[in-house]
């Protein structure tokens, strides 16, 4: 009855089913890994945002690479903004996905070291993309700022190409080593996304808190792939039984069809 399983059509169908099962199981484990990775990231971000602010020089120093655990930690610093050496970071979006610039202003500490401060987003609307845009001024004089610590940006991590030959005082990536060479000063590793004090007139637009990644969605995909993996052999079995019954019924009808001409004679 099941000799049809040796036909070319059924051999191919069986092989495809056998390949689909481990593939779907592996996809389920990949989604499980993504779920655990995103959950861990969300926990680290929440822990960093909830931690008590600390002076920036307790966390980073010139040449320091900001770690994953240090990222988003709230830090404070006291000094003065150096607007003469301010630059803008091209092709950055705000919460409404409008393309503009991030404003990066050196912040000179009491010991002469520099902290890079991303003061927020401004629109790129203007007479020219090559001219330095009009940037709202930061507070003058000695001031205390607060912000989320961020690692240096790289092309490998961000996917943003570090284009050369840009207009004056425009950059693609925020990198403390590059800025140290440009300024000729010691620059603390990484930079901060300013959260306080808030700008007058709401410009530049401060960068929003990092949102939570949708880890439960990966968990749902994990379950889905494993259900698919379990469903493949079940579906194969149903098709086999259906084919077997169809062939059995066809075999029963054949003798009856042969008997009718004989009766007529």
Short description:
The protein has four helices and eight strands.
Give a structural overview:
The chain has 265 residues and is an alpha/beta fold. It is 40% helix and 20% strand. It has helices spanning 8-50, 155-158, 176-183, 215-264; strands at residues 54-55, 74-81, 87-93, 99-109, 114-123, 143-150, 170-171, 191-196. A hairpin with a 5-residue loop joins strand 3 and strand 4 (99-109). Helix 1 packs antiparallel against helix 4. The two termini are 33 Å apart.
As a percent range, the share of strand residues is 15-25%
Structural shape: elongated
Strand order of the largest sheet: 2-4-5-8-6
List SSEs in N-to-C order: HEEEEEEHEHEH
Percent of residues in helices comes to 25-40%
Low-confidence stretches: none
- What's the total number of strands? 8
Oligomer: single chain
Radius of gyration using CA atoms only = 32 Å
What is the rounded distance between the termini?
33 Å
Category from helices, strands and their pairing: alpha/beta
What does the main sheet amount to?
5 strands, mixed, barrel
H/I helix tally:
4
Question: What's the pLDDT, averaged over the residues?
Answer: 91
Quickly list its features.
single chain; 5-stranded mixed barrel; 265 residues; 20% strand; 8 strands
Q: Helices, strands, pairings?
A:
Layout: H1 8-50, E1 54-55, E2 74-81, E3 87-93, E4 99-109, E5 114-123, E6 143-150, H2 155-158, E7 170-171, H3 176-183, E8 191-196, H4 215-264
Helix pairs in contact: 1-4
């Amino acid at each position: 009855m099941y000799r049809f399983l040796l036909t070319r059509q059924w051999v191919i169908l069986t092989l495809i089913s056998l390949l689909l099962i481990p593939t779907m199981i592996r996809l389920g484990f990949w989604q499980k890994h993504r779920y655990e990775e995103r959950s861990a990231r969300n926990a680290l971000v929440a822990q960093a945002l909830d931690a008590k602010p600390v002076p920036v020089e307790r966390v980073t120093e010139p040449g320091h690479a900001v770690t994953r655990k240090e990222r988003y930690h709230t830090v404070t610093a006291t000094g003065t903004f150096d607007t003469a050496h301010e630059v803008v970071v091209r092709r950055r979006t705000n919460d409404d996905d409008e393309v503009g610039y991030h404003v990066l202003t050196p912040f000179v500490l009491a010991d002469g070291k520099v902290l890079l401060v991303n003061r927020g987003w401004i629109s790129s609307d203007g007479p020219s993309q090559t001219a330095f845009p009009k940037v709202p001024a930061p507070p003058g004089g000695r001031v205390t700022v607060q912000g989320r610590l961020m690692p240096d940006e790289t092309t490998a991590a961000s996917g943003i190409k570090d284009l050369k030959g840009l207009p004056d005082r425009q950059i693609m990536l925020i990198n403390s080593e590059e800025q140290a060479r440009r300024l000729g000063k010691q620059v603390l590793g990484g930079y901060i996304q300013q959260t306080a004090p808030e700008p007058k007139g709401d410009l530049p637009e401060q960068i929003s808190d990092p949102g939570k990644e949708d880890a439960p969605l990966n968990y749902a995909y994990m379950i889905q792939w494993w259900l698919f993996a379990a469903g493949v052999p079940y579906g194969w079995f149903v098709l086999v039984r259906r084919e077997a019954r169809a062939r059995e019924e066809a075999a029963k009808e054949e003798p009856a069809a042969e008997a009718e001409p004989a009766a007529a004679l």
